[in-house]
Design a protein that fits this description.
The structure holds two protein chains of two kinds.
Chain A: E1 3-5, H1 6-16, E2 21-24, H2 31-38, E3 44-47, H3 51-65, E4 69-73, H4 77-91, E5 96-102, H5 118-122, E6 128-131, H6 138-150, E7 156-162, E8 171-173, H7 193-204, E9 209-213, H8 215-219, H9 223-233, E10 237-239, E11 254-257, H10 264-272, E12 275-279, H11 285-288, E13 299-304, E14 318-321, H12 324-337, H13 347-360, H14 378-388, E15 394-397, H15 401-409, E16 418-419, H16 430-440, E17 446-451, H17 462-468, E18 473-478, H18 483-492, H19 509-515, E19 519-523, H20 526-538, E20 544-549, E21 559-560, E22 569-570
Parallel strand pairs in A: 2-3, 2-4, 4-5, 5-7, 6-7, 9-10, 9-12, 10-11, 12-13, 13-14, 15-16, 15-17, 17-18, 18-20, 19-20
Antiparallel strand pairs in A: 1-8, 21-22
Helix pairs in contact in A: 1-2, 1-6, 3-4, 3-16, 7-12, 9-12, 10-13, 14-15, 14-20
Chain B: E1 2-10, H1 15-26, E2 32-37, E3 43-51, H2 54-66, E4 70-75, E5 81-92, H3 96-108, E6 112-116, E7 120-127, H4 129-139, E8 145-149, E9 153-156
Antiparallel strand pairs in B: 1-3, 1-4, 2-3, 5-7, 5-8, 5-9, 6-7
Classes of the chains: A alpha/beta, B alpha+beta.
C-alpha cells in the first residue's frame, strides 16, 4: 500500500471520489494541500479571485452537471469568504464539498493568525461538517463528505483540516474507503406505496388539478418521469423558480412560473385547484403568499425527500417522503393502470385556464409597453437572447429584476439549463456560477443575465475567466439602479429611492471588460440589440460583456399583492387582478 | 404543551452543538437539556424539554432526526413515560423552628440531606419537575436558597426500546 502525507491523501481521495475539478484559493493553512495538488495531474485546480466565487463556481458546475462541486479554501478569511457561497448552496440543496484549511491542532482556540471556528461559523448552513483531527481520518471524512453531500436531500458539506495533519513529513498508508455505511444516516429513497396509491387515486379523480413542481425534481434527475406523468394525465403544470426546465417551458401544458412573480394563470389555477401535486417543492413564502389564504379548496399531495419540508408551511393531506424520481415513476405506472376514462374530465378546467391565459397571460400577448428607439425593455432583451441562442443556452442569473425577467421570458425546455440562487437570493452568484457551467460544457452557450448591481459583487472573476479561458457571455441589464429595490420603493415607499440609485458612479463596463482582456459592447437602441446579441454569441472563444441600457422605469409583473392569496396580483403599475 | 424529547446520537464532537444550534436557528426553546454517553460509549443519549404545539413538536422531531449524527428521536410525551429530575438545594436555617420545618418538608417530599452546617442544609430531591417545583414553593420562604437542577431525564414505559 502506498504511503502518503495528509495533503497527498486529500488529493488522492478527491481523485478517487471522481473529482476532476476544484475551485479555490491558496493560503497558509492550505499550503501542504496545494503542494500536493501541484505534484499530480488527476485533479485540476482553478484559481479564482475571491473564495465566494470558488464556491459559486463549484455550485454552478454542480447545478449544470448534477455532480458534486468542490472548493478548497484556506483558514480564517478564506473560510469566511466561502460562507455566502455555502449558504447559497444550502438553501438550494446543491451538493458541494468545501475543504477548508485550519490552523494546526495545537493552535486551535488560541486566536491564532487566520484562525476562525469554521465548523461553528458554517454550522447552520451546512448539511454536515467534519473537523478532521488525525491524518488517519482524512480519507474517511472526505468519502463521507461526498456521500452525505450527494444523497438524500443534497447539500454542502464542510471538511475542516488543520495544517499539521497534512504535514508532508508524516506519511501513512492510504486506501480509499469506497462504499460508505453510516448507521445514523440512511436517507429514504422510496416513497410509501400505500400513500402513493392514495395520491394517484385522488389525482385521477380530480376535476381541477395542477402539478406544482420544484427544484427537487431537477436535483433528483426526475424530469423525464415528471414530463411523462404530466403528459399522461394531460394536467396543467406550474413550476417554482428553482424548478424551471424540469418540464418543457414551451409545452402548452406548462402555465409558467408560480408565486410572487408568477403568471396569472399559474397562480389562479393553484388558488382554484381541487388537487395539487407538489413535487420537490417546499411551499416557500415566495410561492404561497399569505399562508392563511393559500389554495382554500385543494387537497395537497406533497412529495419530497426531506420530511422536514412536508407540512412545514402548509399541511399536506397526502404526504409522501421519497425521492422525486422513484415516486413519480411509481405514480406514472399506477396512473397508466388506472381506469381514468370515466372520471377524468378536465376540459372545463382547461377552458377556464385558457381564458385566464388569453386575458392576463404574458405568453399570449405582450403585457408591457413596446421597446422603441432608446427605450429598451428588459423583457425584450431576454426574448432576443432566447431567439439568438435558440432557447438552448445555459442561463445563470444574479438576483433582482433581471432574474425574474429571465425566469419569465426564457422558456427553459431542459433541466439544469437555468441556474440561479433561488433560496438565498445571492447577488454576485451569476458570473462565477457561469464559469462553473462553462467549465463543464466548454462548447455550450453560457449566458449570465445580470444587472449593474449584481455584477459588481463578483466582477473580479472576469480575470478568472481570462486565466482559465471560460468564454461566458454577460448580459447586463443596466438600469442604473437596484431595480427590484427601486420597484419596491416605487410601490411601498412613494418613490423614495433610498440608496438604490448609482447616479453617475457606474464604471464604463465596456472599458472594464476590455481591461480584463474581454470584448465589451454597449447597446443603447432597440434596433442594435438583435445584431449585437448575434455578434456576441458568434464570438465563441471570447468573454463578451454586453452592457445593455434598459428602461429604468420598468417593473416586474405580475406581482403578488402582499398579504393576499396566490391569485391576488398586480398585473401592471395600475391594474390588480 | 410541554414536550420531552429523547435523542440517541453519535457520541462525537460537534453533535451536541448541532442540536443546540438547531433550536436557536429554528426559533424553538430548550427548557432543559441533559446529555451523557450511554452503555454503548459510541452513543450519547440526550433528553430535552421544550414547549410547542403539535406542528412545532413534529417539526422539532423531524429536524432533530435530519441531523446526520442522530440515530433515533422520540417525543416521549406522545406515549406514557417515566420522567425524573434531580435537584440539589442549599438553604439557610439557623434557628430551631426553621430547621424543624425544613426537616418536615424533606420527609414529606422524600428528600435527603446530603450536607449540613450550623447555618445551612444541603438537600437532594428526586422526582418529576412538578414535585421539585412544589418542594421549592414549600421551603423558599424559610431562608435564602441556592438551587441546581439536572434537567429532565425520560424513558418510555413498557416494552419499547429507543434503539431496537
Amino acid at each position: 500500500m502506498e504511503k502518503l502525507s495528509g495533503g497527498e491523501i486529500i488529493v488522492s481521495a478527491l481523485r478517487d471520489a471522481g473529482i476532476q475539478y476544484i475551485w479555490g484559493y491558496p493560503g497558509g493553512a492550505a499550503l501542504h494541500i496545494y503542494d500536493a495538488l501541484f505534484r499530480q495531474e488527476a485533479v485540476h485546480h482553478l484559481l479564482v479571485r475571491h473564495e465566494q466565487a470558488a464556491v459559486h463556481a463549484a455550485d454552478g458546475f454542480s447545478r449544470a452537471t448534477g455532480m458534486v462541486g468542490t472548493a478548497l479554501v484556506t483558514s480564517g478569511p478564506g473560510a469566511t469568504n466561502a460562507i455566502t457561497g455555502i449558504a447559497t448552496a444550502y438553501m438550494d440543496s446543491i451538493p458541494l464539498v468545501v475543504i477548508s484549511g485550519q490552523v494546526p491542532l495545537h493552535k486551535i482556540g488560541q486566536d491564532a493568525f487566520q484562525e476562525t471556528d469554521m465548523i461553528g461559523v458554517s454550522r447552520p448552513i451546512v448539511k454536515h461538517s467534519f473537523l478532521v483531527t488525525r491524518t488517519e481520518d482524512i480519507a474517511a471524512a472526505i468519502a463521507k463528505a461526498y456521500y452525505i453531500a450527494s444523497t438524500g436531500r443534497p447539500g454542502p458539506v464542510v471538511v475542516d483540516i488543520p495544517k499539521d495533519i497534512t504535514d508532508p513529513s508524516y506519511k501513512i498508508p492510504y486506501a480509499w474507503p469506497g462504499v460508505i455505511n453510516m448507521r445514523s444516516y440512511q436517507p429514504a429513497e422510496k416513497g410509501h406505496r400505500g400513500q402513493i396509491k392514495r395520491a394517484v387515486k385522488k389525482l385521477v379523480e380530480a376535476r381541477k388539478p395542477i402539478i406544482y413542481s420544484g427544484g427537487g425534481v431537477i436535483i433528483d434527475n426526475a424530469s423525464d418521469h415528471l414530463t411523462k406523468l404530466v403528459r399522461e394525465l394531460n394536467y396543467p403544470i406550474t413550476s417554482t423558480l428553482m424548478g424551471l426546465g424540469a418540464f418543457p417551458g414551451t409545452d402548452p401544458l406548462f402555465l409558467g412560473m408560480l408565486g410572487m412573480h408568477g403568471t396569472y394563470e399559474a397562480n389562479a389555477a393553484m388558488h382554484e385547484a381541487d388537487v395539487i401535486l407538489a413535487v420537490g417543492a417546499r411551499f416557500d413564502d415566495r410561492v404561497t403568499n399569505e399562508l392563511e389564504k393559500f389554495c382554500p379548496d385543494a387537497t395537497i399531495i406533497h412529495v419530497d425527500i426531506d420530511p422536514t419540508s412536508v407540512s412545514k408551511n402548509i399541511d399536506a393531506h397526502i404526504p409522501i417522503v421519497g425521492g422525486c424520481s422513484t415516486v413519480l415513476r411509481e405514480m406514472l405506472s399506477l396512473v397508466k393502470k388506472s381506469n381514468r376514462d370515466n372520471n377524468c374530465d378536465t376540459s372545463s378546467w382547461w377552458k377556464k385556464i385558457n381564458q385566464w391565459r388569453d386575458r392576463y397571460g404574458i405568453y399570449t400577448a405582450p403585457r408591457h409597453a413596446a421597446s422603441s428607439g432608446h427605450l429598451i425593455k428588459p423583457q425584450d432583451v431576454i426574448r432576443v437572447l432566447y431567439d439568438v441562442t435558440n432557447g438552448d443556452a445555459f442561463v445563470t442569473s444574479d438576483v433582482g429584476q433581471h432574474q425574474m425577467f429571465a425566469a419569465q421570458y426564457y422558456l427553459f425546455d431542459k433541466p439544469r439549463q437555468w441556474i440561479n440562487s433561488g433560496g438565498l437570493g445571492t447577488m454576485g452568484f451569476g458570473l462565477p456560477a457561469a464559469m462553473g457551467v462553462q467549465l463543464a460544457f466548454p462548447e455550450a452557450d453560457v449566458a449570465c443575465v445580470t444587472g449593474e448591481g449584481s455584477i459588481q459583487m463578483c466582477i473580479q472573476e472576469l480575470s478568472t475567466c481570462t486565466q482559465h479561458r471560460l468564454p461566458i457571455k454577460i448580459i447586463n441589464l443596466n438600469n442604473s439602479a437596484l431595480g427590484m429595490v427601486r420597484q419596491w420603493q416605487d410601490m411601498n415607499y412613494s418613490g423614495r429611492y433610498a440608496e438604490s440609485l448609482y447616479e453617475d458612479s457606474l464604471p464604463d463596463f465596456v472599458a472594464l471588460a476590455e481591461a480584463y482582456g474581454h470584448v465589451g459592447m454597449r447597446v443603447q437602441r432597440i434596433n442594435e440589440l438583435g445584431p449585437m446579441m448575434e455578434k456576441c454569441f458568434s464570438l465563441k472563444d471570447r468573454v463578451v460583456f454586453m452592457d445593455i441600457l434598459v428602461d429604468p422605469e420598468e417593473h416586474v409583473y405580475p406581482m403578488q399583492v402582499p398579504g393576499g392569496s396566490m391569485r391576488d396580483l398586480w398585473l401592471n403599475k395600475n391594474e390588480k387582478s | 404543551m410541554r414536550r420531552i424529547i429523547s435523542v440517541l446520537m453519535e457520541n462525537e464532537s460537534g453533535a451536541l452543538s448541532r442540536v443546540v444550534g438547531l433550536f436557536s436557528q429554528r426559533g424553538y426553546n430548550i427548557d432543559t437539556l441533559t446529555v451523557a454517553p450511554t452503555d454503548d460509549e459510541s452513543l450519547s443519549r440526550l433528553t430535552l424539554t421544550t414547549t410547542g404545539d403539535s406542528r412545532m413538536a413534529e417539526q422539532i422531531v423531524k429536524q432533530l432526526h435530519k441531523l446526520i449524527d442522530t440515530l433515533k428521536v422520540n417525543d416521549l410525551t406522545q406515549g406514557s413515560f417515566v420522567e425524573r429530575e434531580l435537584m440539589l438545594i442549599k438553604i439557610t436555617a439557623s434557628n430551631g423552628d426553621s430547621r424543624a420545618e425544613i426537616m418536615r418538608c424533606i420527609e414529606i417530599f422524600r428528600g435527603n440531606i446530603v450536607d449540613v452546617t450550623a447555618a445551612t442544609f444541603t438537600i437532594q430531591l428526586l422526582g418529576d419537575s412538578d414535585k421539585l417545583d412544589a418542594f421549592l414553593g414549600a421551603v423558599k420562604h424559610i431562608g435564602s436558597i441556592e438551587v441546581v437542577r439536572s434537567g429532565v431525564l425520560g424513558i418510555a414505559r413498557g416494552d419499547k426500546f429507543l434503539r431496537q
